[in-house]
């Protein structure tokens, strides 16, 4: 998959295009991408996605912007897995946001991306002050000769599939509901970095996975599955959160204790799939109490994983 970060010249290869933040690349996004690829094949075009970095709300309202489900790297990996041919990552700043809807269509979509067919969600708005809508795109499609289609909302068991619905499920610890909306277990990936080695001192060494954002959409203690860059799958228990017993930094950390593993993972890229929530974070009076609770958490995780394997 080709990733472009700037539009510097006229596109030499016409595209079938869809636009959005695609945070989480959930089942709704997947349905859009399937339709995009289908029409791209039928029309002999490249299947292309236009997305933005950062999320527009992170620019205009950083205090109330939604928690990200995926980092940019994770999002690109998920888009590649869906078979997208190219992704245009446009830096979203105030200059970009100030374009009128007409300028956005002419300069970005047509001249910059060579758009010949466009697929949008039913709630898509664009341009300065979000003034652009489907009616404006319909008028432009007749004038400039590009195809246009709006996709209806996708539902999963009666629930509208959206990034907001995934966030709500994760925040509530309903990992099964999140998995149904995503079509896969929710995961976080990052490089394994050095930590304070406390886990090793109390008998439960952990892989400390670097978080790209300080506000993950879930917290607590979990049974997890990991996948490293060499393709090795392992299982364990993970803590994601503020570690209230031993840390007052206010920064979230992801620590994974892998079962039956004694090697080193420093520097490797690790994906952590969250399979089951054991409990919320808790502040313990001392390390002895913490150690005892970690032992119980690991047993619960092992029981869940064994039952899942038998099922």
Question: Which descriptors would you attach to this protein?
Answer:
alpha/beta; Rossmann fold; 14 strands; 10 helices; 311 residues; Elongation Factor Tu (Ef-tu), domain 3; 27% strand; six-stranded antiparallel β-barrel; six-stranded parallel sheet
The CATH superfamily of the largest domain turns out to be: HUPs
CATH fold field value of the largest domain: Rossmann fold
Strand order of the largest sheet: 1-4-3-2-5-6
Biggest beta-sheet profile: 6 strands, parallel
Low-confidence stretches: none
Order of helices and strands: EEHEHHEHHEHEEEHHEHEEEEEH
Shape: elongated
The assigned CATH architecture of the largest domain is: 3-Layer(aba) Sandwich
Distance, first to last CA: 36 Å
Total discrete domains:
2
Number of strands: 14
Oligomer: single chain
Radius of gyration: 22 Å
Range of helix content: 25-40%
Portion in beta strands: 25-35%
Q: What structural class results from the helix and strand content?
A: alpha/beta
- Mean pLDDT over the full residue set: 91
CATH class of the largest domain: Alpha Beta
Count the DSSP helices: 10
């Amino acid at each position: 998959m080709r990733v472009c970060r700037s539009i510097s010249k006229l596109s030499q290869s016409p595209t079938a295009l869809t636009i959005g933040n695609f945070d989480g690349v959930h089942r709704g996004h997947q349905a859009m991408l399937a339709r995009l690829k289908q029409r791209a094949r039928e029309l002999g075009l490249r299947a292309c996605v236009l997305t933005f970095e950062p999320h527009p709300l992170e620019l205009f309202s950083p205090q109330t912007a939604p928690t990200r489900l995926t980092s940019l790297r994770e999002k690109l990996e998920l888009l590649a897995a869906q078979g997208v041919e190219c992704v245009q990552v446009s830096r979203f700043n105030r200059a970009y946001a100030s374009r009128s809807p007409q300028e956005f269509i002419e300069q970005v979509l047509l001249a910059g991306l060579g758009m010949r067919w466009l697929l949008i969600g039913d709630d898509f708005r664009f341009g300065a002050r979000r003034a652009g809508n489907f009616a404006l795109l319909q008028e432009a499609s007749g004038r400039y000769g590009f195809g246009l289609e709006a996709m209806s909302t996708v539902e999963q068991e009666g629930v509208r599939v959206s990034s907001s619905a995934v966030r709500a499920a994760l925040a509530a610890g309903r990992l099964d509901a999140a998995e149904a909306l995503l079509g896969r277990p929710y995961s976080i990936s990052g490089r394994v970095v050095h930590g304070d080695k406390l886990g090793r001192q109390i008998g439960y060494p952990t892989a400390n996975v670097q978080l790209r954002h300080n506000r993950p959409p879930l917290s607590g203690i979990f049974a997890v599955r990991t996948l490293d860059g060499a393709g090795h799958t392992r299982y364990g228990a993970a803590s994601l959160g503020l570690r209230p017993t031993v840390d007052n930094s206010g920064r979230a950390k992801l620590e994974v204790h892998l079962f039956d593993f004694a090697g080193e993972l420093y520097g490797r890229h690790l994906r952590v799939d969250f399979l089951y929530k054991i409990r919320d974070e808790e502040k313990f009076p001392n390390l002895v109490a913490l150690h005892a609770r970690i032992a119980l958490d690991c047993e619960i995780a092992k029981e869940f994983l064994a039952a899942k394997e038998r099922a």
